Amino acid sequence: MAAYRRVFLAAAAGAFITAALSPAGLAFDGPETSALAAAKPLQMFKDPHQALQSALESYRSGNPASSVEALKYAAAGGEALAQWKLGRMYADGDGVPRDDYKAYQYFQGIVDNYDEDTANWREKSVVASAFVAVGLFNLKGISGNRLQADAEAAQRLFMYAATHFSDSNAQYQLARLYLDGAAGVPRNHMQAARWLNLAAEKNHVESQALLGQLLFSGDGVPAQRARGLMWMTLAREGAGGKTQDWIRAQYEQAIHAANDADRQAALVYLEDHLKRRY
């Protein structure tokens, strides 16, 4: 059994609501999967992997609802990408009714079945994303008493994905947890800055923005105004749609608060950073 499963499952066992899981402990749609197997509507697929490929083609063609049954067949057969895709679809209400608990179950299934000794590293990003998703569900909880909020469990999940997979999203979420603090996880801006820096170096835009703000303001860390302005400049250049308008607004506020020495030094840092990167 993987080291993670030995440590995490023992520590977080109380956080999982096993009564809602199938008798075998699989975090899938137990009744739906059983009915699916009984009806045998997917005999056209020779194996779960072929079902996964067919489902992804259907999804990409703009028919997410029509891909659901094939994805469930593939997920029940152990295809991690199918489990992850169903998790995202239920979390977003994409082709299925939104259901956070079903989403959580699919992501948790990936976490539970992960064994670092036999892992397929081609699925690294899928597994890391599942750890982050389960961490976020643990952090916020799920309504109806289906999952109680547990910041310490979220911290363990983020930490594992941040260290074992070096995943930038996990590093960002771990940093946010240290910035905000929660029950069992005290605020620690120095730790937050450390994880933000690791993610920022991987061009994680939100991490660049938050790290820049921390350094520019000196909030709980030694102030480095020019270096902070550099990170916010990079974040502004990489910011996407309206959901990242806060990054552009943050940059504008900082650039107006900066003096000439800050701006000139930030430009030097920026040029050096780009030389190292490219």
Rough shape?
A: elongated
The count of β-strands is 0
- Major sheet details: none
Parts with pLDDT < 50 across at least 5 consecutive residues: 1-42
Q: N-to-C SSE series?
A: HHHHHHHHHHHHHH
Percentage of residues in strands: under 5%
Computed over alpha carbons, the radius of gyration is 21 Å
Structure class = mainly alpha
The helical percent reads: 55-70%
Number of helices: 14
CA distance, first residue to last residue: 41 Å
Mean pLDDT: 87
Count of the separate structural domains? 2
Give the helix/strand layout.
Blueprint: H1 3-12, H2 30-39, H3 48-60, H4 68-76, H5 80-92, H6 100-113, H7 124-140, H8 151-164, H9 168-180, H10 189-200, H11 205-217, H12 225-238, H13 245-257, H14 260-277
Structural description of this entry:
The chain is mainly α and 278 residues long. It folds into 2 domains: 1-144, no CATH class; 203-278, no CATH class. It has 14 helices and no strands. Helix 3 packs antiparallel against helix 4 (68-76), helix 7 runs antiparallel to helix 8 and helix 8 (151-164) runs antiparallel to helix 9. The protein is elongated. The relative contact order is 0.07. Residues 1-42 have low confidence and may be disordered. Residues 1-27 form the signal peptide. This is Sel1 repeat family protein. One of its GO terms (biological process) is ERAD pathway. Keywords: Signal.
